[in-house]
Amino acid sequence: MDRSMKNFLVAAALPLALSLAVGCGGSTPSESSPEDSVSTGLDDLTPAPPSMPGQDDPPAEPVNPGMMLPDDVPLPDPSEINEPRESNGEKPKGMELPDDIQPVQTSSTAAGESLGMIVGTQTKSEDAAEVKLNIQLAPWQEIDAVTKQAGRITVVDFWSLSCVPCLREYPQLVALQKKYPDRVRAIGVNVDFYGGEKYPPKSYQPQITKFLTAVHATFPNYISQTPSEDVFKSVKINALPAVLVLDEQGTVVERFTDASHSGGFTYEDDIVPLVEKLIAK
C-alpha cells in the first residue's frame, strides 16, 4: 500500500474514534451520582411500612374488661338473690313450708325430751286450728321493754323464716317454756323485715303464722317493725341464730350466737342447762 492510501485510511478512522469517545447518541452523562440511582431503585422495591392505629386501618377492639351491666340496670336487692319465686312471680315471704305440714306433736315435759321434727309427712291435724297464737307487730323498743320485765327468767329467741338452724331449734324453746311455765318467759322475735318498702313486716305474717302453728308456739311472738340490722346493733349480735337469756331481774346473763360460741350452740347443750342453773339458785 502506498503512502497516499495510508493517509486516506487514517483520516477516515479519526471521526469514528471521536464518535465512540463521546458516547452513544452523543448525549451528555447525567449529573446524578450512582448512589442516587441505587437509592431510587431500592425505594421502588422496598415495601411500605405497616400503617399505625388511627390512620388507615379501623381501630382495634378494646380488651374485654369482664361482664358489664348497662348503666340503666340497677343492681339486684341482696335479699332477693337466689330466692325462689312463687307461681305468680312474687317473692315468697321467707321460707316456704309445705301446704300439708303436720303440726308438731308435743312429747311429755320430762327432762331432755323435745317436740320432734318440724315438718312431717302426714296430713294436717285437726288440732291445728285449736292452737291459739299470740303474734304482735311492734317496734324493737317496745319488744325490748317486754323482755326486760322482772319476775321470771326470760329467753328471747331471734329468728327468721330463712334461717334453717333457727327453725330447727325453735321447738326446743317451746318445750322449755312448757316445762317451766311459772319460771320461764319465752319470747320469739322474728326479724325477717330488713327495711324495704316492698315487703313490710306484715307481709311475712302468713308464713310466720303457719310455722308457729306447726310448732305450737303459743307464747308471745313478735314481728319486728324495726329493720333487722338496727335490731342486731341494739342487741349486740351480728347474725342468726341468736338467743338472749335474762335473769329474774331483767339483766342479760348470756348472749348465744355462733360467733360467741365456737362451734355454735343448741338449746339442749347450752341454753337449757343455763336456764336450769338459774332456776336452781
Description:
There is one protein chain. The chain is α/β, with parallel strands linked by helices and 281 residues long. It has a domain of 182 residues: Glutaredoxin (3-Layer(aba) Sandwich). 32% of the residues lie in helices and 12% in strands. The chain is built from seven helices and six strands; from the N terminus they run H-H-E-H-E-H-E-H-E-H-E-E-H. Strands 1-4-3-2-5-6 form a six-stranded mixed beta sheet, with helices on both faces. Helix 4 links the parallel strand 2 and strand 3. The longest helix has 20 residues. It is globular, with a radius of gyration of 48 Å. About 39% of the residues have low confidence.
Main traits of this protein?
281 residues, alpha/beta, 7 helices, cytochrome c-type biogenesis, redox-active center, Thioredoxin-like_sf
In helices, the fraction of residues equals 25-40%
Shape: globular
Structural class: alpha/beta
The chain-level mean pLDDT equals 71
Classified in CATH, the superfamily of the domain at 99-280 is Glutaredoxin
Biggest pleated-sheet summary: 6 strands, mixed
CATH topology of the domain at 99-280: Glutaredoxin
**Distinct helical segment count:** 7
Strand content: 5-15%
- Quaternary status of these chains? single chain
Helix/strand order, N-terminal first: HHEHEHEHEHEEH
CATH architecture of the domain at 99-280: 3-Layer(aba) Sandwich
Rg, Cα atoms, Å:
48 Å
Strand arrangement, largest sheet? 1-4-3-2-5-6
CATH class of the domain at 99-280: Alpha Beta
Distance N to C terminus: 165 Å
